[in-house]
Amino acid sequence: MKRHISTTIDGEALEFLSEDGQTLLDALRDVLLKTGTKEGCGTGDCGACSVMLDGRLVCSCLVLAAEVEGASVETVEGLAEAGELHPLQKRFLEGAALQCGVCTPGFLVAAKALLEINPDPSEKEVRYWLAGNLCRCTGYDKIIRSVLDAAADMRGETE
Amino acid sequence: MARVILPQALADRFGGEVQLEIEGGNVRALLAALDARYPGIGQELEGRVAVAIDGEIHNDPLLEPVEEQSEVHFLPRLAGG
Amino acid sequence: MSDEKKFRWVGTRPIRPDGVDKVTGRAQYGADFALPDMLWGRVLRSPHAHARILSIETGAAAALEGVHAVMTGQDLPDLFAEKAAAAGGHDDSNNLAHNVMARDKALYHGHAVAAVAATSREIAERALELIDVEYEVLPHVLDIHAALAPGAPLVHPDRVAQGIENSGPSNIAKRLQIGHGDPEEGFAEADEIIEREFSTRPVHQGYIEPHACLAQTTQDGRVTLWSSSQGHFMVRDYTAKLLDIDLSLVRVIPAEIGGGFGGKTTVYLEPIAVSLSRKSGRSVKMVMSREEVFRASGPTLGTRIKIKVGVTREGVLTAGEATLHYEGGAFGGSSVGAGCMTIFAPYAFPHVRSTGYDIMVNKPKGAAYRAPGAPMAAFALETVMDELAQRLEIDPVDFRLRNAAKEGTLASFGPRYRRIGCVETLEAVRDHPHYSAPLGPNQGRGVALGFWFNAGLQSSAGVNLNPDGTVTVLSGNPDIGGSRASLAIMTAEELGIEYEHVDVMVADTHAVGYTDVTGGSRVTFATGMAIIEAVRDVMGQLCQRAAAVWEVDAERVSWHEGEARLDGGFEPAPLGLAELAKNAGKTGGPISARAALTARGVGMGFGAHICDVEVDPETGRIDVIRYTAVQDAGRAIHPSYVEGQMQGGAVQGIGWALNEEYVFDDEGRVQNPGFLDYRIPVASDVPMIDTVIVEVPNPAHPYGVRGVGEVPIVPPIPAVVNAVHAATGIRFCDLPLSPARVLARLDEARSPGSA
């Protein structure tokens, strides 16, 4: 059976039909063709599919599509505003915080969630917050540095 | 004459010589000369091994030139990650 | 090229051309493609480690509403059986074909046995449940000991070992031996000899993006594949070969690749997707689940290495001897050859011999993993080197420096080294503040050296000059870690133009010449060489166009800093790239060039790592608290991405040393096929990874480039293990150093009566 879902994704009101049991991740990718959100495991272990659901950081592979009825979802695709990249995106680029880049959408969404509740995190806080996001390429060094740099940017302590 | 160094295991099967002085302008000619000395060895080596000529490894070496003073080693082929 | 040469772009850190796409979600990876008529393909996999397939009943699955195609191994051509039979059963194409889908026998838990294509993933999954496979379960072998035991079940009863005279069928796929001198003589000259045995467990490359592809076929036999891989030409060639299709009919469009580390240098899904597409007349998308990635895509498997090293009282190595057994999985083909070749490579050994055995077991077909075969070999040698240094009371770095390979050293794998940076790398470790920093209680420091060959292979490139003076570069290598940036840097440097005026495209198999895989640390080196050759061709054409404008001999015109100059001067006013490009139509037509080459002059690579650990005596948990990676990059074109390779390789190696292993049950089933139970390092597990890039330019490359991607995974295992020894006094010879294993050894050492 298909269910009619009305929701808001990256600020845009949307409607779609969801199969029973379909995850938010599959709805985003297969139904809405928003493939910026990635699947690395489908079991909530890698964080590549991280999105914000009503302000809460979730793995979209562990959320049913039906749960976003009336809710607001933010994905990596809504991070940049019009022509302007988010400070995290800029710092990830400048700091070479991505190699293959497939984990990057999840890291950006998760890091943004961190900086919203803790604008001045320590290195250790960043590492533990991002421990649910796996990266196999970078060894995390440049990711952590870029998040700390972006946090400083957002606090107005740089430039 | 180029200096050719054979893998020990192969040398054991073909006459026991590990180092040989062989004439040949390229790897194919070397293999032919080797094969004339030890029938069967050329076929054994061709297509299954890489060749190092003066320290540089070639994976598809048949037409690689071999100089008068070159040192030629036969190696197992490699895969990279 | 002299070291003093000042570069404008080489050595700088501009933003990668594909960067914005990758931070905004726009970049398309393997699973991100869709077509309107698309079906979803799914694979049924063997629940047994070893079983004869007696029958496969697919009628119920095919009858399910929404199912458009069902296939088994019988639907694939069997093209290589004769060739294999003539070679004692061993044929790479035959192995690949039978790994893609089992025919008469399933050889590991996860081996593909059938596949379906349906209108949704859910229907495809349901259809798999309706396929009835009758198995006769066979006894299996899971590790080296079992595979070599007398009377062991044979993975392939028809296969005879290569490299062993007059042997009967066995689980040995191959034996090889390399070396020089006479180890017995060398050991007779030694004052100290250490002999040890080491083991490692199967580990997975652990790329975050599962294998994925989309196949479209037409009635006239054409195939288009969108695929994530380390080489779309490899995907084209393997798929065409297994299905007997002309290469010109197969076009593979490279997706962005979400990590590979060697594991995406082969095909799993593509031949199946094409077959399902042909059967159904629809396009077919296939994406592996994470469980499938672990069960069915290639790990690097278990190893056992016995090693013996002799040294004089003065700390000069006299002999090395090793016997290496590497599991190759269900078809053999392990990296034991490279293990044999690299194990003694970093040092000058007057007498050395390595004997390798490639062993078949009922585990997934092994695949390349970053410096394939070398990390396990380095674990053995570098642990023994540490012990020898300790026994001789020599500083471990000094000990290594006394024996380090240099230009002219007879390498353990045969030839003499050309210019290498082994000594310079070790000196940078010795002089680094980390090496002499104080340590706290329960802490220890280890160092280790690593070597990898790097590869050249075949590359093609295209360079198109646009009418506004900007440049489009075509490469045939998927960009796995920033290579578009390094290729753009070299292009801008050669031409003397802005980096931002160069864009690099990874072109499909119909658009650029044949190019070998993104592997062997070869892209910036080899494809870079092809691009430089094409760019220099473009520069030559630009000079000719300027000569035509000036009505002078082309020999009098040369290219400097982005402009053509007559006799190197400024009279007449030089002609810039933009102006020449704009007027190209009037001076002879568009300007573009191609180059294709087999890259010569590979620069071999060395890296040395310093690792500090703290061991919790209560739990056995090991924390890496400080880590420095030093490596000779020849020349770092984009230092950030060189550092990134070093940091990523170090952490991958730390994971291999401390956590990672496949767990099999007694039936040969993988018990931990997911990231929860197969735990790769997370951000909170590791410290910052400091890097030192040593630059001993490779004389054969225009900018001195050596490959950098693989070396960094070679030193970490012994660096960690040596650090743990320094912290605890315990030498670990078996991986991984998981808390339970460490605690058991700590308890043993603490128990009354132990030495």
Task: Give a brief description.
Chain B is of the alpha+beta class and 81 residues long.
The total count of helices of chain C amounts to 22
Judged by helices, strands and strand pairing, the structural class of chain A is: alpha+beta
| Relevant CATH superfamily of the largest domain in chain A | Beta-grasp domain
Q: How do the strands line up in the largest sheet of chain A?
A: 2-1-5-3-4
Using DSSP, what is the number of strands of chain C? Answer: 26
Return the CATH architecture of the largest domain in chain C.
Answer: 2-Layer Sandwich
The main β sheet of chain C shows up as: 7 strands, mixed
How far the N terminus sits from the C terminus of chain C, by CA atoms, comes to 58 Å
Which of globular, elongated, flat, extended, rod-shaped describes the shape of chain A? globular
Number of structural domains of chain A: 2
CATH class of the largest domain in chain C: Alpha Beta
**Elements of chain A, N to C (H/E):** EEHEEEHHHH
Low-pLDDT stretches of chain A are none
Distance between the termini of chain A: 54 Å
Name the CATH superfamily assignment of the largest domain in chain C. Aldehyde oxidase/xanthine dehydrogenase, molybdopterin binding domain
CATH topology value of the largest domain in chain A: Ubiquitin-like (UB roll)
Low-confidence runs of at least 5 consecutive residues of chain C:
none
